[in-house]
């Protein structure tokens, strides 16, 4: 059985790590390079860096910050935000990213997923799906959770797998920053329909939330931000609790 992964996420805006609730009310948390380095040295299995304002501001991800981060960490590094073209993917991989996350642009131009997967390999392409609950199911949201595309999140997950994405970063907009646990219903619904790895994101606030999402669903990884950035729990403590609950987890 493949070991589960614990992934801290750095949401970056204006060169600083920020965190909010339901994608709004952002507060500054620290320097992305320093924080990524700390997590790399203290048990993170991977690090995800999301330039959360790049798409709305119509600009590319901050390449210099990506380069400096990549030079200081020794775990797999995924970067997303403002990725709109094959050239953007190329620049991020050259800057040191191991994987590139695509969200809004993938919805607008699904062929970008296929083209990127063919050129760089599926293992390099992560499609981020931000999902929000509506009466008829979960809708795919873009532009930092602001725009409802009307797309069914489950159908979209199946489509991106068919197009060659190697992994899905699944974030519940409803649970983001609320700290009451991952959206287990959403996560189960997506994971049960596809075969590629899924990273659960949005809502983690307690140690037990990690083991809960691993036990209740077949996700490959669990992502968190606030509880790590605020120093509430260490990654090593999270892994210890997961092991105690029978989860096959990578050693810290």
Q: What is the strand and helix layout of this fold?
A:
Elements: E1 5-13, E2 16-21, E3 24-30, H1 32-41, E4 47-51, H2 54-57, H3 63-72, E5 77-80, H4 86-95, E6 99-102, H5 104-108, H6 111-120, E7 125-134, E8 137-142, E9 147-152, H7 153-163, E10 167-172, H8 184-191, E11 198-201, H9 207-216, E12 221-224, H10 226-229, H11 235-244
Parallel strand pairs: 1-4, 1-12, 4-5, 5-6, 6-7, 7-10, 10-11, 11-12
Antiparallel strand pairs: 1-2, 2-3, 7-8, 8-9
Helix pairs in contact: 1-3, 9-11
GO biological process, one term: L-histidine biosynthetic process
GO molecular function: imidazoleglycerol-phosphate synthase activity; lyase activity
Keywords: Amino-acid biosynthesis, Cytoplasm, Histidine biosynthesis, Lyase
What is the domain total for the residues?
1
Distance between the termini: 18 Å
Q: Could you say which overall geometry the principal axes of the C-alpha atoms support?
A: globular
Helix count equals 11
The CATH superfamily appears as Aldolase class I
The order of strands across the largest sheet is 1-4-5-6-7-10-11-12
The CATH topology is given as: TIM Barrel
Mean pLDDT: 92
Largest sheet report: 8 strands, parallel, barrel
- Mind telling me which CATH architecture this is? Alpha-Beta Barrel
The computed structural class is alpha/beta
The poorly predicted ranges are: none
What oligomeric state do the depicted chains represent?
A: single chain
**N to C succession of SSEs:** EEEHEHHEHEHHEEEHEHEHEHH
β-strand number: 12
